[in-house]
Design brief:
The protein is α+β, with helices and mostly antiparallel strands and 293 residues long. It has three domains: 47 residues, Uridine Diphospho-n-acetylenolpyruvylglucosamine Reductase, domain 2; 115 residues, 2-Layer Sandwich (Uridine Diphospho-n-acetylenolpyruvylglucosamine Reductase, domain 3); 114 residues, CO dehydrogenase flavoprotein, C-terminal domain (Enolase-like, domain 1), CATH 3.30.390.50. The chain contains eleven helices and 14 strands. The longest helix is centred in the C-terminal third of the chain and has 27 residues. Bound molecules: flavin-adenine dinucleotide (FAD). Flavin-adenine dinucleotide (FAD) binds next to strand 2, helix 2, helix 6, helix 7 and strand 10.
Length: 293
């Protein structure tokens, strides 16, 4: 399989990149790490004649502490994110996802922006970033838009970004006091295999150890990251224990809308959702308790 003939444009400014996307729409696509797009070009899933590479726009690469929280540049690689001291100190649950994704070679090339913009249901960052309350920043010559993740994804490989928009960053707000989060996924192999099902959970405990807030978002079992509102209703106001987490896991299984494919049947995925939800809740609870002690 070969990449079909395409014209490559290497840009050093967002303005140039956006102008090229407009000029060649609808046959142009942003190229970041290429780990998703080049596979799609080889297999014929993407039909693109112009690749607008943004790799030379250095301002899109890095992790910064800001008043609003962590700002993660869209071109930051998964490897760099995983080893960032700022992420380790302020946003450690993200590392559950970055540590399990793909293989080191892919993680070195794959970018945060690409993981979100590709809008693939099994992508690992969207569920945990959703639970952490992250927003994406989309830039166009008309200005900058900020979108909470639930408003960003429309369906498999579809987002609310316009064709001339470029995802420039992700903002992750500071974790509230008493909050812990975790991401659990199942894949058929340990390395280089995409998630068959995944669950991200976040719990905030009050001073008496009751659940004051709860968030649960599933991956790979619905067209978009699936937030389970019922789990929140089940959990909030109660003291965490095994029967309570069982109820939340049952709510997650109900909310999942899995498909059957080569990686597993819909039924298998639904069962996985229950197991992964319990695992994510257990870890989130341990971390929330550590954050309060
Ligand atoms: C062997 C293999 C294993 C993999 N395993 C995993 C895995 O375990 N978990 C996982 O989540 N993913 C996995 N992937 C998928 C892929 O590596 C990730 O989704 C990656 O983060 C995509 O980033 P990228 O920079 O390579 O994106 P690209 O391939 O460059 O782009 C992907 C899409 O996003 C668009 N895009 C990219 N950046 C921007 C931007 N800044 N603004 C607007 N649009 C943009 C592109 O136009 C394209 O449509 C795997 C891929 C391979 C080949």
């Amino acid at each position: 399989m070969h990449v079909p003939e395409v014209e490559m444009h290497a840009c050093v400014t967002l303005e140039d990149a956006s102008a090229l996307l407009t000029r060649y729409a609808p046959r142009a696509r942003v190229l970041a790490g290429g780990t998703d797009l080049l596979v799609d070009l080889k297999t014929g899933r993407a039909n693109t004649q112009h690749l607008v590479s943004i790799s030379r726009i250095g301002s899109l690469r890095g992790v910064w502490a800001t008043a609003e929280g962590l700002r993660i540049g869209a071109l930051t690689s998964i490897t760099r994110l995983h080893h960032s001291n700022l992420v380790r100190e302020r946003c450690a649950p993200l590392r559950d996802a970055t540590g399990q994704m793909a293989a080191p070679q892919i993680r070195n090339m794959a970018t945060v922006g690409g993981n979100l913009a590709c809008a693939v249901p099994c992508a690992d960052l969207p569920p945990i970033l959703t639970v952490l309350g992250a927003e994406v920043v989309a830039w166009s010559p008309r200005g900058e838009r900020r979108l909470p993740l639930p408003q960003f994804f429309l369906g498999p490989r579809r987002t609310t970004m316009e064709s001339d928009e470029i995802l420039t960053a992700v903002i992750v707000p500071p974790m509230p006091a008493g909050f812990g989060a975790a991401y659990a996924r199942f894949a058929l192999r340990e390395g280089n295999a995409i998630a068959v099902a995944a669950a991200a959970a976040g719990l905030r405990l009050d001073g008496e150890g009751r659940i004051a807030d709860a968030r649960l978002t599933l991956g790979a079992v619905a067209p978009v990251p699936q937030t389970v509102e019922l789990a929140r209703e089940v959990l909030v106001g109660h003291r965490p224990d095994e029967p309570l987490f069982e109820k939340a896991a049952a709510a997650a299984e109900l909310a999942a809308r899995p498909i059957s494919d080569v990686r597993g049947s819909a039924e298998f995925r639904r069962r996985l959702v229950g197991v992964l939800t319990r695992r994510a809740l257990d870890t989130a609870l341990r971390r929330a308790r550590e954050a309060t002690s």
